[in-house]
UniProtKB/TrEMBL annotation:
Family: Belongs to the ABC transporter superfamily. UvrA family.
Domain ABC transporter residue range list: 459-782
Species assigned in the record: Trichococcus pasteurii
Taxonomic lineage of the native organism: Bacteria, Bacillati, Bacillota, Bacilli, Lactobacillales
Cellular location(s): Cytoplasm
Protein name: UvrABC system protein A
Example of a GO cellular component annotation carried by this entry: cytoplasm
Length: 785
């Protein structure tokens, strides 16, 4: 052993990326380390921008075929890193929007299942089918109508006619809504003129024949139409005047054309493919079965049911000539389904698309995949692995984390859950606050007998609600015949284990309240005028990856206008569009105003580097000479929200939203931060801040999806103040939540779905005051308090 250096720790020296204050940190190798601290304190900067980024760069420099990237990838702002290992990011921000990607394809289970079907079918029927024959991604096997997606777009009547109390003239049929000179509105005028329909009639006053004409008229007769284009040009055109639905159905044929889809998507909804009924496959594939089940049926089974089918297949072919190959395939599938059951996602099926999963579900699927990985000596980075989990489910994540370590790997998790943190070999806490004043190591704990903090619950003083909204006999997904009441002007929390029905209930509430009628339930009763829902979830903000905090908050238009009104801008002839990041003009065209360039790498995820043309400043030099209160437009985008109070204290539309962002604990975020760089918790709070900072004309129902996820105790206290203030203003708030202390402190009413998930769940087992539900033996909280 002489001359061999024992490498016990990854040693990071002088880290000063973003707000980190030249810190030194040691992470034990082949151990489990937790990094924690308030939002914006530097956790992601340390783990992602330094450790993970340097691991990528070092690995890249040893791979061939990436010479260009090797030269321009920037070194992280760190003095040195010793004993670094290859790092794998298993985060919740998994930007896979491909609907063809499923749990089966991501976990490789579908590959083994298709191989099994081909093996048994060929053995039994004397065929020579390939594994790809059973794939919905194979052009010869997939359904020709939906192209293997199992879904198709159709016209949504709820979107087409959102309010039947409106008149035709005021835009009751949204497709015909627009300026009186527009093509769509003129089409409506012609239709009404041809068939003597009163434009001032409300939709609900129309008879069946009139509705048929306005929606489904299908005529080849050409009518001369005069209208104006969006650019104000007058046009004359001979067109076939059709009903709104018929027009949209015609355009649906060209839905693969991006411009067509962009124009009509607001009138559409997704539904099960009318040809394959959601199986994704042609009949010639489905006619082959194993143990009385075709491959679509098997891929749609929950994991527990799938395991029973696996045992049935094993027994059926135990005496056959292919039993060894069959067992080999079945074992590979069984290992993966068992891991997913252990991770409390056994209620999912292999056919479930990845984009439809929550961030927590995706992360657990990816962790399960790594549990099957034969590699060791890796650094696994987990981002809030306990997010979205009920306290009863935390132990499964702890076990999976320790399994990864037992395979000879190092696990680093960014986490706030105290039970999970207490199991770590080392805890690194950053702080003491978020933003510029954070970035210090305030605690490094290596004591394995870490003190468990006692949970103390403080309940609100109960006040009886005066009004309720009621939903009778809800029937949707796994919820069957459930009656639900929600108190108005109060805070209601919805709890239960993963897959028990919480999100399903919330979707029913949103649909009913928004439409004003019973949707997915037998009866909906709302005696108030509350008909607006603000669903504040953790999905990325903005419509594109180019969205910034400023654009999402709707303050960037005001800011660009302020810059265009300065003397310097007027002298140079700059308008507000020259300060835009979305259109050519003042922005840097090399990076299109993002300040960075994407580098596509072989074998590795894409990387982003500072734009070599503008140096990350987003704009041309002449635009950056224009200043508003001594700041350039780039200075404004790079400044934190709290630093801009003084700059915009006299611009109320901007200041009011910035103040809301700060009050909710996000004062450290910069206005120019890209939406894809925000965590799920940050994105959710930005959405809430935008809603709070927008003047409200009427009351609404706020729905929040796990708002405490990723939040430190200090951040949660700020959130509590904001929500209680909303309640005082008479707003109704519904929260899906797992944090027991937060629930006790904030909730007036609690609905609990219990400890069963999937088809066994979907039943509200306890409801009422939180303290009563916590003591109910039927509830998911019984025995935890």
């Amino acid at each position: 052993m002489n001359g061999v250096v024992k490498r016990d720790n990854i040693i990071i020296k002088d880290a000063f990326e973003n707000n980190l204050k030249h810190i030194n940190v040691e992470i034990p190798i082949d151990k489990f380390t937790c990094v924690t601290g308030v939002s914006g304190c530097g956790k992601s900067s340390l783990i992602y921008d330094i450790l993970y980024a340097e691991s990528q760069r070092e690995l890249l420099e040893n791979l061939s075929g990436n010479m260009f990237a090797q030269k321009i990838m920037n070194k992280a702002l760190v003095g040195s890193i010793e004993n670094l290992r290859p790092a794998l990011n298993v985060s919740q921000n998994y930007y896979n929007s491909n609907p063809r990607s499923t749990i089966g394809t991501l976990s490789d289970s579908s590959h083994y299942l298709r191989t099994l079907f081909a093996l048994i079918t060929n053995y039994r029927e004397g065929l020579t089918l390939k594994e790809s024959f059973f794939s919905s991604n194979d052009p010869t096997s997939c359904c020709k109508k939906c192209k293997g997606l199992g879904e198709e777009y159709a016209v949504s009547m709820d979107r087409l006619i959102p309010d039947d109390e409106k008149t035709l003239r005021s835009g009751a049929i949204s497709y015909f809504k627009g300026k009186e000179t527009s093509e769509e509105y003129q089409t409506l005028v012609v239709l009404c003129s041809l068939h003597n329909i009163d434009l001032d009639k409300k939709v609900r006053e129309l008879n069946d024949e009139e509705k048929e004409i306005l929606l489904y008229r299908d005529s080849s007769e050409l009518i001369q139409l005069k209208f104006k284009t969006p650019k104000g040009r007058t046009k004359h055109r001979s067109i076939e005047v059709k009903g709104a639905v018929r027009e949209l159905e015609d355009k649906l044929r060209d839905i693969d054309t991006p411009s067509v889809f962009a124009n009509i998507s607001k009138y559409l909804t997704k539904q099960v493919c009318s040809r394959c009924q959601g199986t994704r496959l042609e009949d010639k594939v489905l006619e082959h079965s194993v143990c009385e089940e075709n491959i679509s049926n098997v891929e749609n089974m929950p994991m527990n049911e799938l395991n029973k089918w696996i045992e049935k297949v094993k027994h059926e072919y135990v005496q056959s000539n292919v039993h060894e190959q069959v067992n080999q395939m079945l074992n590979q599938i069984f290992i993966r389904t068992n891991n997913m059951i252990a991770m409390n996602i056994g209620y999912l099926s292999l056919n479930r698309s990845i984009p439809s999963l929550s961030g927590g579900e995706v992360q657990r699927v990816r962790i399960c995949k790594q549990l099957n990985c034969a590699l060791s000596g890796l650094v696994y980075i987990l981002d809030e692995p306990c997010r979205g989990l009920h306290p009863r489910n935390i132990i499964s994540i702890i076990d999976a984390t320790k399994d990864l370590v037992a395979k000879g790997n190092t696990v680093i998790a960014i986490e706030h859950n105290r039970k999970y943190i207490s199991e770590a070999d080392k805890v690194i806490e950053l702080g003491p606050v978020g933003g510029p004043k954070g970035g210090y190591v305030i605690n490094e704990d290596v004591n394995q007998e870490r003190k468990k903090t006692e949970i103390i619950l403080n309940f609100k003083s109960p006040k009886a609600p005066k009004n309720w909204i009621r939903f009778e006999k809800i029937n949707f997904r796994n919820i069957v015949d459930q009656d639900v009441e929600i108190p108005l002007k109060k805070i209601t929390c919805i709890t239960g284990v993963s897959g028990s029905g919480k999100s399903t209930l919330v979707s029913v509430i949103e649909d009913c309240v928004s439409s004003g009628k019973a949707v997915k339930c037998h009866k909906f009763t709302n005696t108030t005028k509350v008909n607006t829902v603000d669903y504040v979830n953790q999905k990325p903000i903005g419509k594109t990856s180019r969205s910034t905090v400023a654009s999402y908050l709707d303050v960037f238009d005001n800011i660009r206008q302020l810059f265009s009104l300065t003397e310097s801008a007027k002298i140079n002839g700059f308008t507000a569009s020259d300060f835009s990041l979305n259109v050519p003009g003042g922005r840097c065209e090399s990076c299109q105003g993002t300040g960075f360039q994407k580098i596509e790498l072989n074998y590795l995820p894409d990387s982003y580097i500072e734009c070599t043309e503008c140096g990350g400043r987003r704009y041309h030099e002449d635009v950056l000479l224009v200043k508003y209160k001594d700041k350039t437009i780039n200075d404004i985008l790079n400044a934190s929200v709290s630093e801009l109070f003084e700059v915009f204290n006299d611009v109320i539309p901007v200041y009011s939203k910035l103040k809301c962002v700060d009050e909710i604990g996000l004062g450290y975020i910069s206005l120019g931060q890209m939406s894809m760089q925000l965590s799920g918790g940050e994105a959710q709070r930005i959405k809430l801040a935008k809603s709070l900072g927008t003047p409200m004309k009427k009351k609404k129902i706020y729905i929040l999806d796990e708002p405490t996820s990723g939040l430190n105790t200090q951040d949660i206290e700020l959130l509590e103040k904001v929500l209680l203030k909303l309640e005082e203003q008479g707003e109704t708030i519904i929260i899906i939540e797992h944090n027991i202390e937060f629930i006790a402190k904030i909730s007036d009413y609690l609905l609990d779905f219990g400890i069963k998930s999937g088809d066994l769940g979907g039943k509200i087992v306890s409801k009422g005051l939180p303290e009563n539900v916590f003591r109910d033996p039927q509830s998911s909280w019984y025995g935890l308090v």
